[in-house]
Amino acid sequence: MGKGRKALIVGIDYYTDLAQLSGCVDDAHAVKQVLDRHADGTKNFQTKLLTGTGPNDVVSRKMLKEEIRELFAGDEEIALLYFAGHGHAEATGGYLCGTDTTDGDDGLPLGEVLKLANDSTVTNKILLLDSCYSGVAGTAANDARFAELSQGLTILTASSAKQYAHETDEGGVFTNLLVDALNGAAGNLLGEITPGSVYAHIDQSLGSWDRQRPLFRTNVNSFVSLRQVHPPISIDDLKAIATLFPSGDHEFPLDPTFEPDRPIDGVVVDPVEENTRRFAILQKLNRVNLVVPVGATHMYHAAIESRGCKLTVLGEHYRRLVVKEHI
Question: Which has the closest alpha carbon to 112: 81, 84, 158?
Fold first, then answer.
């Protein structure tokens, strides 16, 4: 698993001078809950939660900077920052606003956050920013150095440099989709969730007409998994793909003996147990878009009409992984 995985999760609703927010603390708790453990209950991230809920529970600019500095110190496998609260942007760049921010530009400069992340010796640094104008992160904005992401740095923001991060009664739109992704909506066939798959889920869910567009920038050359969830197909069934399809272009022949249920008139051939066992696996592979019927709409009809099935492009990819023993 590596040298360790830690996350700093910040949610600020209470501000001394800026407008009060209402969903950021709840969003932070939701992110902490989903990152704490994998779907099977085993430990995932060591998380630290900072909240700004009122006069006696604040996250000052100084505290925020020191905690982020501590987050990116060390040599862990992953250090992840999640921030939900006010953001600010102007000609001098972007800012994360602590509780004591008065005007916006006295918040914590995103340039300083990026400097800490860029200089970190942690293998993978991940910034998840749910604040207005958070897309400033990683752009040139008066200092081209901040447009360069060091090896292992990934930035996912709720909106562009000029957009608000929208909220509903249930919290930030971005974070709702982020938690949904981490709960499994962005998992691959092995149950692994990556920053890229999280972005894809959020981007697709928002759609073309939404006023808010997430931004994603990354500089990684190795696989990064944020969370492990239950895969949609068992490993044994997935590995069977290489046996069922001896080559990538193989067409698996079917006939009525593969289908145990056949109410269609005229089909009198009895099912064969071994064929129905293999057909059950093929149907599972079909449901996760690895196999498609040939010359028929459904796998059932492909069997009844003595047709066949073949691998999709994605199926060919997973077959290669199995053959190379990467799965």
Answer: 81
Give CA–CA dist 140/215, Å, rounded.
Answer: 15
Tokens 């340039």 correspond to what residue? Answer: 111
Report residue 144: phi and psi, to 5°: -60, -20
DSSP state of 175: H
Question: 257, 270 in Cβ contact below 8 A?
Answer: yes
What integer is the mean pLDDT of 91-116?
90
Residue 2 CB partners (closer than 8 Å, separation 6+): 76, 77, 78, 123
Rounded CA separation 254/304 (Å): 8
pLDDT tens-place string over residues 44-92: 999 999 999 999 999 999 999 999 999 999 899 999 999 999 998 877 7
Distance from C-alpha of 85 to C-alpha of 13, rounded to nearest angstrom: 7
Distance CA 174, CA 158 (A): 5
Q: How far is CA 102 from CA 20, 77, 84, 107, 303, in A?
A: 12, 36, 17, 8, 69
For strands 46-52 and 5-12, give the pairing: parallel
Residue 295: HSE in the Cβ half-sphere, 13 Å Cα cutoff: 11
18-to-21, 101, 104 alpha-carbon distances in Å: 9, 7, 8
From 288, 101, 132, 124, select the one nearest 213 (Cα to Cα).
132
Quote the distance between the C-alpha of residue 122 and its chain's center. 20
Is the separation of the CB atoms in 226 and 81 below 8 Å? no
Give the separation between CA 176 and CA 170, rounded to whole angstroms.
8
Helix axes 110-118, 61-71, angle to 10 degrees: 20
Distance CA 148, CA 218 (A): 10
How deeply is 28 buried, as exposed, middle or buried, from its count of CB atoms within 10 A (0-12, 13-18, 19+)?
buried
Question: CA 190, CA 181: separation in Å to the nearest integer?
Answer: 15
